[in-house]
Amino acid sequence: MEVIAKPKGGDVDRMAEKVFMKSIELLGGLRRLVEYRNLTWLPSLAEAAYVVVLKNEALKTYSEIARELGITENTVKSIATADEEKVLEYIRGELEDRPKEHIAGGIAKLAYRKLKESGALDEEEVEMDQDVIETLEIAWAVLVLSRLRGMHFPAGKDELMERLKGIVVKEKGREYRIEELLERIEYPVKSPAELLSAIKRAAA
C-alpha cells in the first residue's frame, strides 16, 4: 500500500531514525537480530528508512535520493516500490520462498506506514519552560501532555475537551474537573506550555 503524504519540511534525520527503530521493532527487536545473526540487515534498514522518508516526506525523485545517499537509482526504486505486505508475510514465515521484493525496503515502508497512521512520525517533543515546571503540580500536567501527543497547535476548545476529558486537576488542596477549567480559558491555544499555564490560572 502506498502512503500519500504532504511535505512537512520536518527533520529528515529524525524521521528516518524513527522509521529505522520501528523497523527493528517489527523484526522482533535488536536482541532477536543478534540471536539470529541478522545484524547485517541494519545497514540496509538504515538505507531503506532514509529512502522512504526522502520519497514520502521530502518528495524527492529517485535520482535525487540516489545522489543524496550515494546509491543507485535502481536500489532506490527497489526500496520505494517494495510490496510491504509480501515482505510482512515473508518475515512471519507465511511464504515458502523469499519474495523478489527488497526486504529492507518493505519493512521500512511498513514501519513508515505504522508511524504515519499513529501520528508518531510527526510527533514533536513537548517542551516546557523551567518556570512552568516549577509552578505546576506535575502529576496532572504530565497526564495532560501525554494526551496531547501528536496534536497540532494552535488548538481549539472542542478538540482539547475531547482529548483531555476525565482528567482531574489538583491545585492547592482542591480538585477540579478539567472540563470545568477548559471552559474558563481563551482559544485558540498556541502551544502545550500555554495550555498548561492557562489551566493553572483557571484553577487559581
Overall structural domain count: 2
Structural class label:
mainly alpha
Task: Let me know the largest β-sheet.
Answer: 2 strands, antiparallel
Total strands = 2
Distance linking N and C termini: 51 Å
The run of helices and strands is HHHHHHHHHHEEHH
Number of helical segments with 4 or more residues:
12
Query: How does the overall form come out from the CA principal axes?
Result: elongated
Question: What is the residue-mean pLDDT, rounded to a whole number?
Answer: 79
Order of strands, main sheet, comes to 1-2
Helix content: 55-70%
- List the uncertain runs: 1-7, 132-136
Q: Estimate the strand proportion.
A: under 5%
Radius of gyration: 22 Å
Give a written overview of the molecule.
With 204 residues, the chain is mostly helical. The protein folds into two domains: 12-118, no CATH class; 130-199, no CATH class. The chain is 58% helix and 4% strand. The protein contains twelve helices and two strands; from the N terminus they run ααααααααααββαα. It has helices spanning 12-26, 30-35, 41-56, 62-69, 73-80, 84-91, 103-118, 130-135, 138-148, 157-164, 178-182, 192-202, and strands spanning 168-171, 174-177. A two-stranded antiparallel sheet has the order 1-2. A hairpin with a 2-residue loop joins strand 1 and strand 2 (174-177). The longest helix is centred in the N-terminal third of the chain and has 16 residues, at 41-56. The protein is elongated and about 65 Å long. It starts with 11 loop residues before the first helix and ends with a helix. Mean pLDDT is 79; it is low at 1-7 and 132-136.
